[in-house]
Specification:
The protein has helices at about 40-55, 80-90, 100-110, 125-130, 130-140, 175-190, 205-215, 230-235, 250-265, 305-315, 335-345, 355-365, 380-385, 390-395; strands spanning about 15-20, 55-60, 90-95, 115, 145-150, 170-175, 195-200, 220-225, 265-270, 270-275, 285-290, 300, 320-325, 350-355, 375. It is an alpha/beta fold. It has 2 domains: about 10-175, Phosphoglycerate kinase, N-terminal domain (Rossmann fold, 3-Layer(aba) Sandwich), CATH 3.40.50; about 185-385, Phosphoglycerate kinase, N-terminal domain (Rossmann fold, 3-Layer(aba) Sandwich). The strands form 3 sheets. The chain has a 6-stranded parallel sheet, sandwiched between helices. It is elongated. Bound molecules: adenosine-5'-diphosphate and magnesium ion. Adenosine-5'-diphosphate binds next to strand 12, helix 12 and helix 13.
């Protein structure tokens, strides 16, 4: 996959209409519909400001929630238009439809320096189907000489009309958010500063198989924690008590251990644990020394010895990619391993990248977000990136 894509710095947008795909999929209060966190809107500001400053007329669009092709008033982007206007300090014109008469009229009248936001793209079922007519109608809003700018990293792994389809009709470049994702994560995968350490955790082996496969060819060290560690330990003949087990992945886990050894990749597994007798926040925290977990207990977090060994590997790394918490960090008693990793990344001189929705949430919740080189903004998208998959929303952009 080629990560070297043209950006808004490579095109002249003066006097042109720019169709800008944003990620305005913000969390909302269920009762009132109010935006509970406007981080994603604020993240879009640099790209929007640059385009407006350079004399473009910006037609912004996004999805919000899962309306499944139906008009759902509680998922209208109107609230986003209002917040965006406050943050930008200028009027945001709102179209009550996506490619309909209101959008067409307002797009046609849009002047350089002005911004229009379309209604929720997923109100039209053709968006998620990547329907070519819908994509062309979106592109036509930008008209002759128009440009498509993609800045919604969270949806680049989906081939939808607004994330990939439109690129067939307009010259397509990335905005500043996607540019940063591609530069930092692309470099980590293609030409990492070594040693390259991958820290993999989370609940399930099956979610991370493609990531492990891809990183086995790239990393120097792979650190395994979280719920998936127990399937690896069981495959190595250890007792794992009541811990999470994917019995159908035992052979796979064994293969990975063998392959890592063949490739000269150091694969680290937990050497001690924090356990509980049941999966609950109030359960007593029972330490288990050694790799085996006693009968009747389940592994909830890596133990202190493991955290020390993992932190040491991170301390000496040139690049660290982290995907997946080391334990059930949602329960305070079992957040220690994840906190130790976040701290180790924060204190390391390495390029540090956090990908994955829960990992990013954990790093933020634990207060280490500003200490990381990069926290990927796309959960599913960053996972597919680490899998080495071709992302339709990236592949469709013009090569540098
Ligand atoms: P990401 O979203 O960063 O890719 P995942 O979704 O793969 O991460 O995994 C996150 C989830 O894994 C968390 O909800 C966490 O509670 C869970 N988890 C971590 N360790 C364990 C464990 N030992 N047992 C059960 N669940 C775990
Ligand atoms: Mg997750």
């Amino acid at each position: 996959m080629n990560y070297s894509k043209k950006t808004i710095n490579d095109v002249d947008v003066k006097g042109k209409k720019v169709l800008l795909r944003c990620d305005f999929n913000v969390p909302q209060d269920k009762a009132t519909g109010a935006i509970t966190d406007d981080k994603r809107i604020r993240a879009a500001l640099p790209t929007i400001r640059q385009l407006l400053d350079q004399g473009a007329a910006v037609i912004a669009c996004s999805h919000l929630g899962k309306p499944k092709g139906e008009v759902k008033p509680n998922l209208s982007l109107k609230v986003v238009a209002e917040r965006l206007a406050e943050l930008l300090g200028q009027e945001v014109i709102f179209a009550a439809d996506t490619i309909g008469p209101d959008a067409q009229a307002k797009a046609a009248a849009l002047q350089p320096g002005q911004i229009l936001l379309l209604e929720n793209l997923r109100f039209d079922k053709r968006e998620e189907k990547n329907d070519p007519e819908f994509a062309k109608a979106l592109a036509d809003l930008a008209g002759e000489g128009g440009v498509y700018v993609s800045d919604a990293f969270g949806t680049v792994h989906r081939a939808h009309a607004s994330t990939a389809g439109v690129a067939a009709y307009l010259p397509a470049v990335s905005g500043l958010l996607i540019q940063k994702e591609l530069e930092i994560m692309g470099k980590a995968l293609d030409d990492p500063k070594r040693p390259f350490v991958a820290v993999l955790g989370g609940a399930k082996v099956s979610d991370k198989i493609a990531v492990i496969n891809n990183l086995l060819d790239k990393a120097n060290t792979i650190i395994i924690g979280g719920g998936m560690a127990y399937t690896f330990l069981k495959a190595q003949g250890h007792g794992i008590g009541k811990s999470l087990l994917e019995a159908d992945r035992l052979d796979y886990a064994n293969d990975m251990v063998v392959k890592a050894a063949e490739k000269g990749v150091t694969l680290l597994l937990p050497v001690d644990h924090l356990c509980a007798s049941d999966f609950s926040a109030d359960a007593d925290c029972v330490p288990a020394e050694g790799q085996d977990i006693p009968e009747g207990l389940m592994g909830m977090d890596i133990g202190p010895k493991t955290a020390e060994i993992y932190a040491a590997a991170i301390r000496d790394a040139g690049t660290v990619v982290w995907n997946g918490p080391m334990g059930v960090f949602e329960f305070d008693k079992f957040a220690g391993g994840t906190r130790a990793m976040a701290k180790a990344l924060a204190e390391s001189g390495a390029v540090t990248i956090v990908g994955g929705g829960d990992s990013a949430a954990a790093v933020e919740q634990l207060g280490f977000a500003d200490k990381m080189t990069h926290i990927s903004t796309g959960g599913g998208a960053s996972l597919e990136f680490l899998e080495g998959k071709e992302l339709p929303g990236v592949a469709c952009l013009l090569d540098k």
